[in-house]
Structures are given as structure tokens and as C-alpha cells.
Specification:
Blueprint lengths: L1 E6 L5 H13 L8 H10 L3 E8 L2 E11 L2 E9 L8 H13 L2 E6 L4 H12 L3 E2 L4 E3 L9 E8 L3 H15 L4
Parallel strand pairs: 4-5
Antiparallel strand pairs: 1-2, 2-3, 3-4, 5-8, 6-8, 7-8
Length: 174
């Protein structure tokens, strides 16, 4: 049984698992400095870091921000040893079932891997927004990145500017 469990103790084994998976799964331009990440886990009421378990085995991480009317998924990763076993689809279905309204960033389709990632989210029920979107730099030594927003249950055409502003302000401090 898949469970998504909030982690709020940065000294716990569960948090160490999520932090190690985050830094192994994403390029450094795609996550904030670790001490800032820990600060969000401990004290930001909008932010939620979660470990994903299958029975009692840790298999992934999910971090998201709770905004008015939707969640913004900042990071989602399944451990490399557990990939291609259907976990990603099951977890996304569970997230949609619980939260209904979801927004996330995805890299633009520049190669087979990034195209497959967009197709994965489409198969899970998310729609690709074609509005121009740039992920701001997380920190002074990182780069901004061209991305797309994808969503489920959100009228992105009507709310794009509001959502973009909310993400940039709260997630990236811009």
C-alpha cells in the first residue's frame, strides 16, 4: 500500500532519505540550498515535504506548496531502484484524488527523456500550459530555466499570471 507521509523533522531518517533522493534526482539548478530546504521543512506553513512508502519501504519523495485553491508540486521523485514499476502513476493518481487541483513545472521537451516526462504527466491527467514560463534561479549561483507549467483541475488559461506570480513569490522569493 502506497502512503504519502509528511516529514517535518530534519533529523529523522525519513528526512535524510528525501534529501538524498532530492539531490541525487535533480540538477543543482532545480533545488534550493539545503539549509533553505531544511528551514522550509521546519517552519514554512505553506510547504510540505513528504516521503512515499510502499508498505514500510521508502520509495520516493514529494514536496509541495499549499496555495489558495491548488497545490504546487515542487519535487516528485521515485528512487532509481523502484522506477519503471508503476509507482509514479499510482502516486500521481493518489495526489490528484486527494488534492484535485495541481500545478507543477516540467522541463521543456528537448530530448527523449524530457518528452517522456511530459507524456507521463499527460497520461496521468495533467494538461500542458503553452504560456511562456521561466523557473527563477533558486539561489545566486544557480540559473533560471525555461520550463512549462502543467496542471490538473486548474483553469490555467484564466489563472496563469496569478499562479505564476504566486509560485515565483512564495517558492523562489521573487
Amino acid at each position: 500500500m502506497i502512503e504519502i507521509i509528511k516529514v517535518d523533522n530534519i533529523n529523522s531518517e525519513s528526512y535524510r532519505f528525501t534529501e538524498e533522493l532530492l539531490t541525487a534526482s535533480f540538477p543543482t539548478d532545480e533545488y534550493r540550498a539545503i539549509d533553505e530546504q531544511r528551514k522550509n521543512v521546519e517552519s514554512n506553513r505553506l510547504f510540505s515535504m513528504n516521503i512515499i512508502h510502499d508498505d514500510s519501504t521508502p520509495i520516493g519523495l514529494l514536496s509541495y506548496w499549499q496555495f489558495d485553491g491548488y497545490i504546487y508540486i515542487e519535487h516528485f521523485a521515485i528512487h532509481p531502484s523502484k522506477r519503471d514499476k508503476g509507482y509514479g502513476t499510482k502516486v500521481v493518481a493518489q495526489i490528484i484524488d486527494k488534492h484535485r487541483n495541481i500545478v507543477l513545472e516540467v522541463e521543456r521537451a528537448t530530448d527523449d527523456v524530457t518528452a517522456r516526462r511530459i507524456d507521463f504527466y499527460r497520461r496521468c491527467g495533467l494538461a500542458l500550459c503553452t504560456e511562456e514560463y521561466i523557473q527563477p534561479a533558486y539561489r545566486p549561483d544557480s540559473n533560471e530555466l525555461p520550463m512549462h507549467l502543467m496542471s490538473c483541475g486548474v483553469e490555467m488559461e484564466k489563472q496563469f499570471e496569478k499562479i505564476k506570480t504566486e509560485i515565483h513569490r512564495n517558492v523562489y522569493g521573487k
